[in-house]
Amino acid sequence: MATEKSTDDEQQAALQPDGEHHGDKQSLLVHMVVLQLKLIADGLRDAMLIPVSLIAAIGGLLLRTEDPWLWYREVLLWGRASDHWIDLFDSYRHQADPDFDALLQATRSRVQQDQARNQNQADATTDHDDDAPESR
Question: Which of the chain's termini has less CB crowding within 10 Å, N or C?
């Protein structure tokens, strides 16, 4: 029984994103949006790979007598690389290669910086307006 409990805890820990507040609503909302974006990217990739893989396989069968698998293998390699980059279910999150999450994190950081800068400018404008003499 203790082994089952530790396995459940390990599985739950594996599903939790690193360094996030797991109990707050904002974190859940962010992760839900990220998952939706990843699902869209994954679906677009899959929709593109269907005809490309068929063309590569048929082209290999008809045109490549020496190595009919060549183009098909290239499609498979590209598919694996894109799977790693999209990282739909955070399987690769501990690896250092840049991926979809890194792109989203950079975008999120940029938005937060812009919001902070805009807030500082708004605060400075409000402070400046408070210092101005009142006209009657």
Answer: C
